[in-house]
Amino acid sequence: MRPRRTMRTPPPALAEAWWPLQEVAPTGSRWYADQVSAGWWDPADDQRTRLRHAVALVDELLASLPQSSIADGATILELGCGPGTALQELAARWPGTLHAWEPEAEPAEVARVLAPDATVHEGFVPLPLPDGAVDVVWVPRALARGTAEWAPLLAEAHRVLKPGGLLAAVLAGPGAWAWEERADAWDEAATGLLVLGADRPDAQGGPVRFVSRWWLDEHWGRGFETLAVRPAGVTMPHPGQGFGLGVWRRAAGDPLPADLFAAVAAQDRREGRAFHRQLALADEEARAVAGRRATAIAATRDRAAALSGPEAVDDQPRVRAAVAAVRALEQDVERLRQEVDAA
Predict the structure, then answer these.
(1) What domain range includes position 330?
(2) Which residues of the chain have pLDDT under 70?
(3) 109 and 71 in one domain?
(4) Among the three residues 215, 242, 262, which one is the final residue of a domain in this structure?
């Protein structure tokens, strides 16, 4: 193993987007309570929190892989490394060759600084790696949350892995569902592939992509053999908390395209049920967003009226800015209403 380096963290704005702390963790939330109980959350020190989380994630990865796969000369690829928050820890502990991929140029450049021994690729897939060049693909975030499409990433993992190579990925399941603090309980049969928070900014965690075990077996099973799936408990002291993690072995055969992984079995009623549930939840989210925008419009309109009233200070630029904000919000609400009606 390589000696451990003194670890640094990327600029706060980039690190926050990769795995956010403040915006998705109000102190009264289930998310916050679970992270504090895990022992790596330091409410007074975001930098130390990220370092601890990076260590915990790499601990989970190395403990989940067969020890025979962690060997000198083995090549690992991290898909979706962000600004190198966990990549720097992996670089200090992986005994072989390390590659990483990040679609955005700015965080990719920071990752190169934090993990100089890793080859960091950026841009779109496919990557400039030959077929079957990698022993392990590690996906700590991109298949569980964010806006990246899952099927092209899975197809790229299948392409670069050697037959018999391993895919390890963090997943969103019942433990992460509890962090959403919804009234409805986790429904394994009706989840399939379900995205919550489609309009949630990346700095607040972005969308979360929930998956059922049957859906993984149906879609990922077309190119991978399941070795182990934990529905929750990653970096958590209790097995029912937080995100899960799975490990798959690449099946023999030629690389499979993204369309094949994404294709829906025509006679599988579970897929239809999950799709209808996704539509219902998307409609619910869109209406909630429209409601928040309407509230913001009313507050901005009141402010504009106060600034325009006979008792107001003559400050025309502020009035014009307030009126412009009202119009922009009204346009957003109308767009959301049209999207809801179209769905």
Answers:
(1) 269-342
(2) 1-9, 12-13, 16-28, 203, 303-320, 322-323, 340, 343
(3) yes
(4) 262
- Whether 198 is covered by a domain: the verdict is yes
3-state secondary structure the chain: CCCCCCCCCCCHHHHHHHCCCCCCCCCCCHHHHHHHHHCCCCCCCHHHHHHHHHHHHHHHHHHHCCHHHCCCCCEEEEECCCCCCCHHHHHHHCCCEEEEEECCHHHHHHHHHHCCCCEEEECCCCCCCCCCCEEEEEECCCCCECCCCHHHHHHHHHHHEEEEEEEEEEEECHHHHHHCCCCCCCCHHHHCEEEECCCCCHHHCCCEEEECHHHHHHHHHHCEEEEEEECCCCCCCCCCCCCEEEEEEECCCCCCCHHHHHCCCCCCHHHHHHHHHHHHHHHHHHHHHHHHHHHHHHHHHHHHHHHHCCCCCCCHHHHHHHHHHHHHHHHHHHHHHHHHHHC
pLDDT digits (tens, 9 = 90+) for 226-252: 999 999 999 998 999 999 999 999 999
pTM: 0.81
Q: For residue range 8-19, list pLDDT tens digits in order.
A: 667 766 776 666
Same domain, 199 and 283: no
Q: Mark whether 161 and 76 lie in a shared domain.
A: yes
| Residues 226, 282 share a domain | no
